[in-house]
Amino acid sequence: MPRKSLTDLYQMKAKGEKIAWLTSYDYPSAQFCQAAGIDMILVGDSLGMCVYGYNGTLPVTMDQCLVHSEAVRRGAPDVFLVGDMPFLSYQTSDAEAVHNAGLFLKKAEVDAIKLEGGVRIVDRIRAITDAGVAVIGHIGLTPQSSGILGGHKAQGRTAEAAKLTLEDAIAVEKAGAKMLLVEAIPPEVTEVIHKTLSIPVLGIGGGLPCDGQLLIISDLIGQFQAFTPKFVKKYANVAEVVTKAIKEYVADVRGSKFPGKDHVYSMLPGEADKFRKLVGVKPAKKSK
Ligand code: KIV
């Protein structure tokens, strides 16, 4: 299937077809995503936790995001790819934000970038959009600012808080964002945002009333084990499968059951005897 463009994704919204979006951080999982027919991939800064074992996303650097985005692009050349702007890659100035957003396009050939924040970040969204880069906004629970949100908590749970979340959504669209991601907000709030905005609204922990869903691949396949957010549905238990495989390998090695006959290279006919003679080693006993 050819890579979907922004126009294709807008047409999906218009037809009421849901958009399936998933994170990926490496070449093999990107290949799996493409083979499975995913519409969009995000190389999220969640790679900090899922790949590097950090406690959160704040330590993640532009270099890490770029290296992983490049690998994912190689694995999924036919999927709409979104680069994620890590902490301090856009907060400091418009110029730095535009430069870093541009690097995602230059190095990893992404189709869009995502950044966190609503009303307070509209200047950056406008600047990056003016530079010709498609921006996806991200509001609700924004992990890079969990310090001022009181932790990794659902947002918009009171009427007043929900109104602020809606204001963020409107501001992001007005600033030129091409899509919006809402994270960890009640479906009632997602529904109003979806009805109010004309750009596609996607959710991770935002319930059903939006144009598509995002999940983190490490959660979906049961690889990430530190914690499981409420909005995650696990479709596989890779941790169990892989741990079982490694245990069997360990037992095989310890019991001299691996490598077997099928896993070794044979010498050319007659060469083994010649070799032993050459180095003065007794011929091997013939097996019966
Ligand atoms: O980095 C990421 O994967 C994200 C999602 C949690 C939305 O930003």
Short account of what is shown:
This protein has 288 residues and is α/β, with parallel strands linked by helices. The protein has 12 helices and 8 strands. Helix 5 crosses helix 6 (122-130) and helix 8 runs parallel beside helix 9 (187-196).
Task: Characterise the protein shown here.
The protein is α/β, with parallel strands linked by helices and 288 residues long. The chain folds into two domains: 231 residues, Phosphoenolpyruvate-binding domains (TIM Barrel), CATH 3.20.20.60; 38 residues, no CATH class. The protein has twelve helices and eight strands. Helix 2 crosses helix 4, helix 5 crosses helix 6 and helix 8 runs parallel beside helix 9. The mean pLDDT is 96. Bound molecules: 3-methyl-2-oxobutanoic acid. 3-methyl-2-oxobutanoic acid binds next to strand 6.
C-alpha end-to-end distance: 56 Å
Biggest sheet statistics? 8 strands, parallel, barrel
CATH class bucket of the largest domain: Alpha Beta
Topology order in helix (H) and strand (E) letters: HEHEHHEHEHEHHEHEEHHH
Q: List bound small molecules.
A: 3-methyl-2-oxobutanoic acid
The rounded Rg comes to 25 Å
| Molecular shape | elongated
